[in-house]
Amino acid sequence: MAAPKKGRSASAQSKPGRSLALILIALVALTGGMFASGHTTPRLGIDLAGGISITLEARNEPGQPDAINPTNMATAVSIMERRVNGLGVSESEVQTQGDRNIIVNIPKGTNSEQARDQVGTTAKLYFRPVVATELSGAAGEATPTPSASGSPSAGATDEDKATDKATDTASPSASGSPSASATTQGRALTDALKADATPSASASASGDAQASPSPSASGGTSAEADSKLQAQYAALDCTKEDVRATAGDGAKPTDSTVACGQNAQGQWQKYILGPAAVDGTDVKKAQAVIDTQTGAGWTVQMDFTDKGSDKFADITGELAKNPSPQNQFAIVLDGEVVSDPYVSQALTGGNAEISGNFNQESAQSLANMLSYGALPLSFREASVNTVSPALGGEQLQAGLIAGAIGLALVVLYLLVYYRGLSFVAILSLLVSAALTYTIMALLGPAIGFALNLPAVCGAIVAIGITADSFIVYFERIRDEIREGRSLRPAVERAWPRARRTILVSDFVSFLAAAVLFIVSVGKVQGFAFTLGLTTLLDVVVVFLFTKPLMTLLARRKFFADGHRWSGLDPKSLGAKPPLRRTRRPSAPAPVEPKEA
To answer: How far apart are CA 490 and CA 475, in angstroms?
Structure first.
């Protein structure tokens, strides 16, 4: 059993180039990925980039005394991130602090003030009937979406709608002329406004209104509102971000309005929408599920409250009578249409299913958006602070100077005490620094990691942790030389003992960083994250770079012969002479007495 083990050990010793090639490939791949992604520098936190820091305090809505809980707070964070990112504000940070506070850090930018105005408002989700829709920027009048084949589900996703548009663009009025389409839209819009004027009455998009007010009382107002809304719709260009952000501003839930939405192909569509028929708070639960029995794939299932169930049954019953696109309802979150499924029958029973060309990601995304409307939380601004980048820049400069001084002292110590061995330590520090920088640059766009001042401190502390691992290994090698061994066996015999010590030390450091990351909030987590990351990289560098490099250098005459500047001179280390066995003198053979 001992012979195979010795063979494996000898093979590992003779091929240290594999480990060095592996870490070189990793470093080249990370550097290439950094340049390919266009993020050649780490993201900067608000303390270095400057901006606005907002503290929002959650409050329970009336009748919801237990609404402030970790689940709702996490959902609120997701809503705020979606809003800020939707405004084009990059590198923002949204995170919880304590049980009821949310910290929003918005770096300085063109839309930072607008993000501040919207970030703390409660998410508003409504189900509105679609009156008209077309691709934004398309020539001519609106091209209503044709109806697909009937389905007991709530409708189809944008993928199905886009396919139908490509095969059939006829108007539901059967004439197909722009004038006929416009007439249909105008009639449907008038009915929607009539329903707005008389909340107790329901209106059909086909033109049959029930219990509408007399023309003398409301005809002028409806015609004026109709004309104004159609003018807004004609001028609406959803391809422009600033236009999308203000589309439908000021519209009440009981008003008809215009809105924008994005289809599955990434194209922007504009809509005329009727008054809100169902409120987002009427959704009790929404979840993405996969239907393996019918083969429908991923679907979104909704459960409504008792009141919401009646509202949804009424609106779907009315929409099912209408031609496309007036048999669709738009799910509108914060003024943006996130989905517009069609219906073919009244959906009763308090639940509904939206099916179509969903994958897991799109189904989960829609389910999350539907859940946002049921969020029973509101927020107030507890504090708003403006952070200047000048202050952070001065602190960063001071921190970098401190780090440079510390690194210089470490290098000076290594040169004086370890001499030639310091070459190995300095190269290992450079490799560790390169890996840390490239990974931090890539983690910015990947997971939103931002380099702040505490994170810089964590990187500086990591210099000592990394240098400590080299020192442990070097001292083990020196101990073996003091025992009278030559360098090559000393390097291999010292490694198992040094490896255990390094792993235990790094495990303790990583454990401390992990605990600190879990129990802390805000910027302190940046320190803990950086400390944990550099600790893991220390293990990688020592195993894949430092040890193989020492194996190669042990074969060089400068180190193998113990040159006085190598740091491994046996005389200066007080090495014992090689141990040799001495033969004991053999006892003289007994002399037998001679016979007389």
So the answer is: 11
Tokens of 454: 């505490």
**Exposure pattern of 508-536 as b/e (b: 16+ CB <10 Å)?**
ebbeebeebbeeeeebbbbbbbbbbbbbe
CB neighbours of residue 466 within 10 Å: 24
The size of the chain, in residues, is 596
Q: 583-592: buried (b, 16+ CB within 10 Å) or exposed (e) per residue? A: eeeeeeeeee
Sheet with strand 297-304: strands edge to edge: 283-291, 297-304, 351-358
Measured distance CA(308)–CA(285) in Å, rounded: 12
Per-residue pLDDT in tens (0 to 9) along the chain, 596 residues: 444 444 444 444 557 888 899 999 999 999 999 898 888 888 777 777 778 888 888 887 666 667 788 887 887 887 777 666 655 555 577 888 888 888 888 777 545 666 666 666 656 788 999 999 888 864 434 443 333 333 334 443 333 332 232 222 222 222 222 233 333 344 444 444 444 433 333 333 333 333 333 333 334 456 777 788 888 888 888 988 888 878 887 788 888 999 998 887 778 999 999 999 998 878 888 888 887 776 668 888 888 988 889 999 999 998 988 888 888 989 888 788 888 888 888 888 888 888 877 888 778 777 777 775 555 577 888 888 877 776 667 777 887 788 788 888 888 988 888 888 888 989 998 999 999 999 998 988 777 777 888 888 888 888 888 888 988 999 999 888 888 888 888 999 999 989 999 999 999 999 999 999 888 766 788 889 999 999 999 999 999 999 999 999 988 888 888 888 888 878 877 776 654 444 555 556 666 665 55
User: Which residue matches tokens 């920088």?
Assistant: 437
Compute the half-sphere exposure of residue 131: CA atoms within 13 Å on the CB side of its CA. Answer: 31
Cβ-contact 120, 54 below 8 angstroms:
yes
CB 392 within 8 A of CB 49: yes
Mapped onto helix, strand or coil, the DSSP state of residue 416 is helix
Compute how many other C-beta atoms are within 10 angstroms of the C-beta atom of residue 80.
24
> Could you tell me the two tokens for 532?
């944990």
Cβ atoms of 568 and 481 within 8 Å: the answer is yes
Kindly give the pairing relationship between strand 257-262 and strand 101-107.
Answer: unpaired
Amino acid in the structure at residue 512: A
- Position 63, amino acid: G
pTM of the model: 0.55
Query: How far apart (Å, rounded) are the C-alpha atoms in residues 466 and 463?
Result: 5
**Beta bridge mates, 93:** 105
CA distance 47 to 457: 14
Whole-angstrom CA distances from 172 to 226, 296, 532 are: 20, 28, 62
